[in-house]
Amino acid sequence: MATICIKNIGEIIGIVPQGVRRKEGAEMNETGIMHDAYLLIEDGRIAAFGLMTEMPQADEYIDAERGLVLPSFCDSHTHIVYSKARHNEFLDKINGLTYEQIAANGGGILNSADYLHNTSEDDLYEQSMKRVNEMIGKGTGAIEIKSGYGLNTEDEMKMLRVIRRIKETSPAIIKSTFLGAHAVGRGYTHEQYVRLVCEEMIPRVAAEQLADYVDVFCDEGFFTVEDTDSILTQGAKYGLKAKIHANELAVSGGVQVGVKHGALSVDHLEKTTDVEIEALRGTTTMPTMLPGSSFFLGLPYGRAKDYIKAGLGVALASDYNPGSSPSGDMRFVMALACIQMKLTPIQALNALTLNSAYAMDLSDEVGSITIGKRANLIITHPMQSLAIIPYQYQSPWMHYHLLSGVPCSQTT
Ligand code: NIG
Ligand code: FE
User: Fold this and answer.
1) Tens-digit pLDDT profile for residues 323-339
2) Cα of 76 to ligand 1 centre, how many Å?
3) Residue nearest to atom 12 of ligand 1 (CA)
4) How far apart, in whole angstroms, are the C-alpha atoms of residue 183 and residue 252?
5) Does the residue 363 lie in any domain?
6) Below-70 pLDDT ranges, the chain
7) Domain range for residue 35?
C-alpha cells in the first residue's frame, strides 16, 4: 500500500471525529487543531496524523514547510455546465436593470438555454471541464452541478450526460442535480412546462440514472410553492432527494416546502424572516447561503449569524453560474462570509467544508480531517493563522491541493 507523509505542518485545522456529519449552533465555531504535525495518507485516504516528533516512515514525503493543512472545499451548489458567458447582460446590469428585469426581457436563464441548445455535447463538456479544473486549482474537491439550462427534455438530458462525463473523468467528486424547473422553457405555458418536468423529464432522468437530486427554483417570477410541491413529490417517487432554490428574490415559502419534503438543503435564503429560521430548527435540512450571488447582484447577504444563534448549521457554496455568480472561488466565498456576513474564519471553514459536504450527502467521505476520509487536502503557504486566508483575500495562499492524495497540477 502506497503511503505519503505530509511533514512539517504548522497546523492541521478541521479535525473532526468520525461520525460527525455536520456542525450546528455553537459547534460551528469549533474545530480540531493540531500544531507541529504530520499527516499520513494511505491509498488516497487519511490514515493517521499526529505530532512531528512521532512521524512514521512513508514511501514518499511532502514538505508542508510550516503551512496549514485544511480539508478541501466542498461546493454544494453550482451551475457550471453552461455554454458561453453572459457579458451583454453584465452591461445591462451596470446600466441599471435588475436580475428579474433581465429575465423578464427574455434574457437570463433563457439566454443560456439558447446558447446550450446550439452547442455540441463535446464542446459543452470541454467548456465545463475548464471550470471544474479552475475550481480544483482554487481548492475545491467536491462539486454539485445542476442542469437547468436545457429547459426541454432533450437538452436537459444533454446537460445531465455532460455532468455524468465530468463525474467519470474528473478527480473531484461530482454530484448531479436535475433542475428542469429553473425557468419555463421557450414555447411552453407555465402549466405545460411543470407537467413536462413531472411526467416526462423526471421519469427519463431516473430511468437513465442521470441525477442524484432534484431541484426547483421556487421563487417569485419562477416556480410557485404548489409547483415545487408537485415536482418534489414526483422526484421522491423516482428516488430523487430534494435540494432547492428558495427565498432569493422574495420570501417565497420555498424553505417550508423544502422542509416538508425533507430536502437535503435549501439554498440562497437572501430573503428570509424568523419564520424560516424556526421552520428549519430540528430538521435534517441544511440551510445553504451563496454570498457570491449577493455580492454580484447586490442582494442582502444571508443572515447566517442568526441561523447559528438559533442552533442551526449553515453551509456556504459558490453558486458558480453565468448570471448571478460568475465565480467558483470558494476562498472568495470565505472572505465574503467573514467580511460581509461576520462569520469567524472557523465558522466559515466549517460551512465551506463539512456542512457543504453534508448538503451533498458526502460528509462521511470528505469535508474534514478524519481518519478514513478521502485525502482531499489543501496545504497552504507558511501562515500564522487561518484568518490570513479570508483577510488577505487576494494574496497567493495555496501551496498544494491534493485530491485522493494526488497533487493537482495547477494551484493559485
Ligand atoms: O442560483 N437563481 C437561480 N439560478 C441561478 C442563476 C442562474 C442564471 O442566472 O443563469 C442562481 O442564482
Ligand atoms: Fe443556483
Assistant:
1) 999 999 999 999 999 99
2) 14
3) 324
4) 16
5) no
6) 409-412
7) 3-72+368-410
